[in-house]
Amino acid sequence: MTWKNLALVLSGILIGCAGGTVGHAIAQYPATAPRFEHMCMGPSSSVSGINDDVTQAANQGWELVTMTQGIVCFKRPRV
After folding, report:
1. Average pLDDT over residues 30-43
2. d(CA 61, CA 16)
3. How far is CA 67 from each of CA 26, 46, 58, rounded to the nearest angstrom?
4. DSSP state for residue 70 in the 8-state scheme
5. Predicted model pTM
6. According to the UniProt entry, where is the signal peptide (predicted)?
């Protein structure tokens, strides 16, 4: 076995061990973490229509997350 091959094998082992640690941390994510529901709306025909949609969603507890090309997406805590 050459040094290059040995270095590749050892690198693979180290990466695998690091990945196992990350996977374990993800598996231990607390069950009490907040959960969200999401909603997106298609493009409205006018700016005032988008404004009305956003205002109505906000009144229902939705938080605007993103808006692109007239599509608006919201999130709110799941109860």
Report:
1. 84
2. 43
3. 30, 14, 14
4. T
5. 0.55
6. 1-27
